Amino acid sequence: MEAMERYFKCLFVDFIDGGKYSGEVSEDTVERTQCALGHNRHIESAFGFVDRLHTHSPNMIVPRRLAKLMISKNHTTRWLLSKPVEEQRAIMKIARSSLAEIRSEHVESRKKLAEEILVRAHEREKERVLKKGNVAVKRVKAIEAVASAGIVTDSVGISSLLHSLSAPARLKALCAQIRFRERALRQEAPEERIFVLTNKGSPLSENELRRRLELLIEDDLKGLVVTRSLPSTLIGCWIRRWIDDRSEDGKVVSAETKGPFSTISIKFPSSLLSFPLVRFEEELENGYFELLDESL
Question: Per UniProt, what is one GO molecular function of this protein (predicted)?
Fold first, then answer.
């Protein structure tokens, strides 16, 4: 009730005590508002009339809908019938003479509307493709940034990575590891703003970046980093593949890395599957594949 009271006070602030329309009303205000109705039944009736036309005559052109609405709600027919027959004919003749022009304007407006819709659709598609392309480019760059040094999976790996680097290079290496987890592995953020690597435009300290990377490593429960950084360890592992309600077990027969990308091959009784390791990790996450070796 308190919220409703605040809402109505805000809505009718000009009309309650102290408002500019409260108290004695001037003659000018009375004259300007004497035709205003105290309800909205007429406009709601017009909306209902147009809605019915849309339902029962969906192909009716807009000018015809407007004409039927005005004739129905403005009592135009009653006014026309009150005129002499000759004057009625003259009025109807003038009205009919503009039909061709009205139809032509309607066709032209429909054509312009269709062109605008098409242009906007193309713009949205360009925006979508550009956004998708930008995401892919950032993902590839994130992979390339860690390709030479490898992907760290524990605190010891972080120390080894930073051991022989200068201070600026250490910051860059830590940022690259975090960006890889954000853009390539698409790891969920265990902490709010963990992937924001600046503070009011200034880079974060080395200790803070290291803390964030350690938190991401600790939070990574899917084992995706291990499989991506050490694909050769998968060779000989047994993988279970789920197909609807049944499953079959297969063995990893090869896992090789070419540049920043890795490929895995699994031999199942029914077929031999070869695909990028990225896809394998996604299918692991989705539950389509299951690792049977607990060591991973």
Answer: 3'-5'-RNA exonuclease activity
Q: Are 30 and 54 in contact (CB under 8 A)?
A: no
Taking alpha carbons only, the member of 197, 190, 189 closest to residue 173 is 197
Q: How does pLDDT run across 17-52, given as a tens digit for each residue?
A: 777 777 777 788 778 888 777 788 888 888 898 888
- pTM for the predicted model, two decimal places: 0.40
Q: What dihedral angle (degrees, nearest 10) is formed by the CA atoms of 48, 54, 57, 58?
A: 180
Nearest alpha carbon to residue 280 among 271, 270, 290, 272:
290
pLDDT of residue 208: 92
296 near 223, Cβ under 8 Å?
yes
Residue 178 identity (one-letter amino acid): I
* Cβ pair 214, 159 in contact under 8 A: no
Domains of the chain: residue spans and CATH: 52-97 (no CATH), 102-221 (no CATH), 226-291 (2.30.30)
